[in-house]
Amino acid sequence: QSTWGCFTSGLSSDPQRVQSQTFVPCLDLSSVEAYLNEPEVQRALHVAPQSPTVWTVCSAALNYDQYAGTAVPNYQALAGTAVGGNVLRVLVYSGTGDSCVPVLGTELAVASFGFGVVHDWHAWNYVLNNATQTAGHAIVYDRSTTFATILGAGHMVPFYAPQVALIMMERFFDNLPF
After folding, report:
1. Neighbour-count burial of 49, counting CB atoms closer than 10 A to its CB (0-12 exposed, 13-18 middle, 19+ buried)
2. Is the CB of residue 89 less than 8 Å from the CB of residue 140?
3. Contact criterion met (CB below 8 Å) for 75 and 145
4. Would the CA dihedral through 41, 47, 48, 51 be positive or negative?
């Protein structure tokens, strides 16, 4: 039996607060459920013995609230900060097929950081089998901040585009341009 993501009602009277069960992406999560239900995994995670014995996606047994506020001030404070003699670089990325957190919303959030543009929107590419492929588009801001898109990827970019996600992260870690 496969478990697919679901939608549940998680609205509250406080617009900054949503229940954790508001949205789970539409994916086959049966392998995740099987893994999290393994006794040794539950022991490693320190799951209390009195907890529900079967973990399922969208379970009402684990009902907690999370704040759905903005992370913009955190990015503004961290981007370009010197840490141990190095400048902290920030990469924000979004799949163009993300229906949970659409690219436009992320683009507007990153633009609201108020950083100057160093390299305006441009395609970022990679080479596969001696052919140049367009991975997405990027904009580079001052304070060592880059926003990159990944064409066709959904909310969990490494799930939808694992090869491109790896190339993107290697490029970021190796401090190569987008």
Report:
1. exposed
2. no
3. yes
4. negative
Share of the chain above pLDDT 90, in %: 48
Rounded distance between C-alpha atoms, residue 176 and residue 171, angstroms: 5
The one-letter amino acid at 6:
C
Asked if 74 contacts 145 with a C-beta cutoff of 8 angstroms, the reply is no
Backbone angles phi, psi at 51, to 5 degrees: -70, 160
Of 134, 78, 70, the closest CA to residue 106 belongs to 70
Provide the token pair at 115: 């950083």
> What is the CA 146 to chain-centroid distance, rounded?
15
Q: Band of the pLDDT at 12, cuts 50, 70, 90?
A: very low
Bridge partner residues of 148 (DSSP): 93, 138
What is the C-alpha separation between 131 and 73, in angstroms, rounded? 40
Nearest to 165 by CA among 75, 90, 95: 95
String of DSSP letters for 102-120: -HHHHHHHHHTT-PPEEEE
Tell how many helices (H) and how many strands (E) occur in the chain: 6, 8
Q: pLDDT class for 27, splitting at 50, 70, 90?
A: low
pLDDT tens, residue by residue, 65-116: 555 678 888 889 999 898 888 889 999 999 999 988 899 999 999 999 999 9
pLDDT number for residue 59: 67
